[in-house]
Amino acid sequence: MPFFRPKRRRKESEGAPGHLSTHTIRKVKRHVVESILASGSSTYPNEFGAALRSEEVETITDILLIPGTTAGKRHANFQLYMLPVDLTVVGTVHSHPSGALHPSEADLTLFRAWGRIHIIVGAPFREYNWRAYTNLGEEVTLSVVD
Q1: Which of 14, 47, 55, 138 is catalytic?
Q2: What is the pLDDT of residue 138?
Q3: Quick check: is 47 catalytic?
């Protein structure tokens, strides 16, 4: 007896948010930047790491702390399998306590393997101490919006 599998059409409201498949991230909410900088500062001299979420078209709207993330003076190890099933997660953020805002080889490996947008923040964790990168490690400019 063949297995019966009914066919179902998805409504537009189901599944991944439509903006995630068609738009590039171009903006980040001000409160997200402030939270990232504060988190980097509070974990200094260790690194800080989290995931980025986009719930609005082209805009990073939240950070997600990933359970099991470990950090030291020269690393932040993400346990990506601990992320909830969440199709709005678009990338990662982590700090460089040294203040260097360019990605390391390990960062580039993470960027290529997972996510579309990545942010690096560095000491002294002021409003201009961060950079954004694509999954290919190319620097991009994100507008900070309210």
Answers
A1: 47
A2: 96
A3: yes
